[in-house]
Amino acid sequence: MTTTQPVQTTTALTTTAGVTAVGTTTSAGSAAATTSEVTTTNQPVTSAAVTTGVAATTASGPTSDSTVCPAGWSYGFHGSCYKFIFGESHTWDYWRQCVDSGGYLNVINAQEEKDHVNDIITFNSTASSANVLCGLFDPSYSLDFTAADGSFLKYTNWDSGNPKTALKVKVVYKRLANWTQVNTQLTSNAGSALCETSYGFDGCYTKPSSYQAKVLHPRLMNSLLCIEYCRGNDLPYAAVSNDECLCVETKPTGSQSSIACSMGCPYNPMQHCGGTNVANVYLIGYYYHRAPSCVALASQGVLLEGYYWISETEGAASRKVQCNPTAPCHTPLIHTYASTVTITHSNSTDNNCTAENIYLYGPSGCYFANEDTEPWVQVSFDQLYIITGVATQGSNDPDNQQWVRNYALEYSENGVNWTQYENGTQLTGNSNFNAVVLNTLTYPILAQYVRVYPSRATCENNCSLRLEVNGCKYSSFDHSLQYVGCVIETTDPSGQVMVHSASTSCQLPSDCIDLCTAAGFLYAGLQGANCSCANEIRTYGYAASYHCDTVCTGDPKQRCGGENRYSVWRTWEVRCPQVPSVGNATASSTSRNHNSQVTYFCLPGYDWPNGTLEAEKTITCTFNNWTAPPPDCEAIHCTSALPTAANATLSVVGGDKVGAVATYTCLQHYRFPGGSTTKTVSCLTTGQWSAASVSACEMILCPAISSSLINAVVNSTDRQVGSAVEYQCTNNATFGDGGTKRVRLCLDWGQWDGAEEDCGKIFGCHFETGGHFGYFEKGFHVQFLLSHSDKDIV
């Protein structure tokens, strides 16, 4: 294609943010913006804002503004130029002609442009005689239309009754009487096509070797995704090359022929994504429309995680949000781990049913023969995964459209024992062959094997599908991390993310989690004291965590949302509850992970009830619940009677349980053999008392009085405590202190007071007569009578 030489001037471009960016504009409409976007309002580029001073004129017809058009293009208006293509029979032939000319099929983005296009068509008698093909396209055949120029499509101006539900039809500008207005409609014929090029589309260049941001995907790349991704990275240029998006600060060098950049995008073939080692380059500031939500972006093909600018209403302030974040444990497993995934199915003749072909947006899908009355497809992973969702598409065949409307799900840990998800409930599948339908499971499951059973009766034409299983590896899942992020809420009451209000006076995240768990929701969110619940939280994306800066009512160290923001936590668990408590027993472990085993041991003094099996004492965590715990341990009792002990009292502490103590206390002035006054008997873990008998308490006695006292006698032989014994010296003897009497008492502890003492000191005269002897006391008078013969002698 021949182009005019560029006319270089200094141009003011009004960016999406309403901030003026000064760049260098050429007659081909390129501009090197020097200012990155800071969003405030979203306004279209006006004719006064995009000018070069060189007008594109025609002999007569629609009035052009001062937009400079390349050779072969005309009707310049607001930075865009137009041309007609005639005589093609197929949409893609028209598309190719536009792309090879350095443009794309026209898309009307505003009322002003609609009026201008209406004038263009009316002026051209050939074009005005039939419907004119435009650049609206439904890549998923689900009535989610996109723009061929890579802009976010907001202005469609559908004719009455459109868009229709019919598939595989063209989108055209409808011919009305005298072309007084231009409406878009779906139809099967078009007599011409209107092409457009603009300052936003900067042309074909050598693929940049350096970049400031990059994202790639072999099946999901498209121009809109790249433009919005680079906008979210606050960079002025987006360069898309096949399945790569490169965001750069300056316009790439090495201009190439438009024909070299005519490769259709993997996700949206109506948009063009450069080619091998070449890239289509877009000036991002030119594209002023903002999506109202992440969901709206996704509906037009922005399906990769990243930061994007959105605006809920046209002209309102924009905000940068994180869209398409991988929800907790929502990784596309078949795509991510394709090399370790095995696909098996009931139709062994279909060689396309492989991990490389079955995943979403893949080249074909899995086909089940009509004679296969009970079709199924099995996904086998290399290890245990947490499964959180299943997504399906029909087969990738627009000419032979097939899909599955309903299906059931089964899962297994070992490939032998299978469990029906929700008792075989039919999950909602697809309503056309290309739109993706995701079923987020109401509760996550653990599985290494997943089977999908299409309902043969609900298949369209035949049972065919593409499939994805969402989840994450169980071995690397962080069970303790429940916080999801700072989720953006809309101000529109009819479209709120958090759909269930659980409480307006919730003080702590843990309280809100409990409320939403009880209500059956997957996520719990707090905005101040307002606790709300939801199952899907990505509609408007995530904000940076610092936007959720409201202090929680019940804990100043925690944060509970912000203005139009919710701090969100997941409620679901992928492990068992706390290890159950068993009465009077200890647990061997506190692990709650899947397949964890916990064995219980009775505390000392307790034992299992009769009949408790050994296997019952160990429980196993089966994903989210424990097997039945054993019964409580029972106290061991000493059932035999306690022994008796004479002359003693008995007191028992602890009844008859293990550890109970029976204390025997001797009566006063009694003691046990050996001298103690108390004895104890304990209830042992064997259920027996520690002693079968207890000896009697014996009376306490003082030692016996010596039987060999010298010169002394006692008046009693009593030995009981308190007894008094009087010692009396005889034979004129005395105790050491001169006394002749002494009394000793038997004390409480069985000892006499004082020491036993003989009477050893004699006072007086010794006499001996007639074989008798003795002593006379001192002072004793003795009269001797002498007898001699018959006469006494005195």
TrEMBL record:
Molecular function terms from GO: signaling receptor activity
Pfam short name (any one): Sushi
Recorded GO CC terms: endomembrane system; extracellular region; plasma membrane
Domain WSC, residue spans: 198-285, 480-572
Biological processes per GO annotation: cell adhesion
Domain Sushi intervals: 574-635, 636-699
Localization per record: Endomembrane system; Secreted
C-type lectin domain mapped to chain residues: 77-179
Residue intervals of the F5/8 type C domain: 329-472
Keyword Signal: yes
InterPro entries: C-type_lectin-like (IPR001304), C-type_lectin-like/link_sf (IPR016186), CTDL_fold (IPR016187), FA58C (IPR000421), Galactose-bd-like_sf (IPR008979), Neuropilin_MCO_CoagFactor (IPR050633), Sushi/SCR/CCP_sf (IPR035976), Sushi_SCR_CCP_dom (IPR000436)
Keywords: Cell adhesion, Disulfide bond, Membrane, Secreted, Signal, Sushi
Bilayer topology: Peripheral membrane protein
Annotated Gene3D superfamilies: Complement Module, domain 1 (2.10.70.10), Galactose-binding domain-like (2.60.120.260), Mannose-Binding Protein A, subunit A (3.10.100.10)
Domain of life: Eukaryota
Name recorded for this polypeptide: Uncharacterized protein LOC106165346 isoform X1
Organism (species): Lingula anatina
